[in-house]
């Protein structure tokens, strides 16, 4: 078993002086059970004045489908191993995956700060209120900075492991698979990220050689802070944007929403045909009805969420052909 505390033995490694004053921590404080989330390790300093050359993060049990983000000037490597509990990834049982991520060969001076990012999915069987630990080790020329204590003692120990708190998804235990839930009361698939609840998301099927596809959904902001949908990306397209469609006389015009789409606190914004929508551009191939595609939405406050969107017929997805509109 590859337990969450496997790296605890490395606590005997040398610690940096003054470490208790500036621990390595995660940017994120919470993650929704059953949802895909971004994990960012913040590295505030090196090892007793030395530059950091390697950063290693252990992936805890219950965190699946990990994809690390490369960093310029660093060599990215991963170690795979068996999952303690298999993961159901859209009907395919995954019994193993990435368990350790290492960025090596870099040069992060003690006086500088940097971040190391990966994303993955919190398993649907995790418990709300529990802490999930991501033990990490920085390696320098002649020492290490060890952040691997998973006892939960926090600042009472010199080397607390970075952690976040698990919160319930929309369906109780959050059986969202890959950010795609089944707990909405109205029967629509739902997903949550931060204070945002996303329902009714879909992509419109395309015809051969159509270079773009529209996506629609409803985003409800249940919090007290405004948010902004600032970016869209997908593995099936070269790029994604947030667009607004409007009539200019008899011509339907479409343009990118500058600065992103605002999601005001306490309000609901609907992305629908003839109005706001997401646009996947430079498609790698046709999107066929009955299939699905992963789309990552990036919000200014809530962060990233990856949704598995069903591809629906052009009639269900809305009227109009995204290939025919006039772009400003």
Summarize the structure.
By secondary structure, this protein is mostly beta strands. It is built from one helix and 24 strands.
Task: Please give a structural write-up.
- With 328 residues, the protein is an all-beta fold.
- It folds into two domains: 6-167, Uncharacterised protein YcnI-like PF07987, DUF1775 (Immunoglobulin-like, Sandwich), CATH 2.60.40; 190-327, Immunoglobulin-like (Sandwich).
- 1% of the residues lie in helices and 50% in strands.
- The protein is built from one helix and 24 strands.
- The chain has one helix at residues 314-317; strands at residues 25-26, 30-32, 36-43, 52-58, 63-68, 75-89, 92-104, 114-122, 131-133, 136-140, 144-147, 163-167, 190-193, 196-204, 212-221, 227-234, 237-248, 251-256, 261-263, 268-271, 276-283, 292-299, 303-312, 326-327.
- Strands 13, 14, 15, 16, 17, 18, 19, 20, 21, 22, 23 and 24 form a twelve-stranded mixed sheet that branches. Strands 6-7-4-10-11 form a five-stranded antiparallel sheet, with no helix packed on it.
- Strand 22 (292-299) and strand 23 (303-312) form a beta hairpin.
- Mean pLDDT is 82; it is low at 1-21, 171-188 and 316-328.
């Amino acid at each position: 078993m590859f337990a969450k505390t496997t790296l605890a033995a490395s606590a005997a490694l040398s610690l940096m002086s003054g470490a208790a004053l500036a621990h390595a921590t995660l940017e994120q404080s919470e993650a929704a059970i059953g949802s895909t989330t971004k994990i960012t390790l913040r590295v505030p300093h090196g090892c007793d004045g030395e530059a950091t050359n390697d950063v290693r993060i252990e992936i805890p049990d219950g965190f699946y489908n990990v994809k690390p983000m490369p960093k310029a000037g660093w060599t990215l490597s991963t170690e795979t191993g068996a999952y303690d509990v298999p993961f159901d990834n859209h009907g395919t049982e995954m019994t193993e995956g990435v368990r350790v991520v290492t960025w090596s060969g870099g040069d992060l001076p003690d006086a500088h700060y940097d971040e190391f990012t990966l994303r993955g999915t919190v398993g649907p069987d995790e418990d709300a209120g529990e802490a999930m630990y991501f033990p990490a080790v920085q390696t320098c020329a002649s020492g290490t900075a060890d952040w691997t204590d998973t006892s939960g003692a926090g600042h009472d120990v010199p080397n607390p492991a970075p952690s976040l708190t698990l919160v319930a998804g929309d369906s109780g235990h959050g059986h969202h698979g890959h950010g795609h839930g089944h707990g909405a009361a109205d029967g629509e698939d739902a997903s949550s990220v931060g204070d945002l609840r996303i329902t009714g998301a879909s992509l419109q099927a395309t015809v051969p050689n159509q270079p773009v596809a529209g996506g629609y959904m409803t985003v409800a902001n249940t919090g007290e802070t405004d948010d902004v949908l600032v970016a869209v990306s997908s593995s099936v397209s070269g790029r994604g944007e947030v667009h607004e469609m409007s009539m200019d006389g008899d011509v339907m015009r479409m343009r990118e929403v500058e600065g992103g789409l605002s999601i005001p606190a306490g309000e609901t914004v609907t992305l629908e045909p003839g109005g706001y929508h997401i646009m996947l551009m430079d498609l790698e191939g046709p999107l066929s009805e009955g299939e699905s595609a992963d789309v990552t939405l990036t919000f200014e406050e809530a962060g990233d969420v990856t949704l598995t969107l069903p591809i629906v017929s052009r009639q269900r997805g809305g009227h109009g052909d995204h290939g025919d509109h006039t772009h400003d």
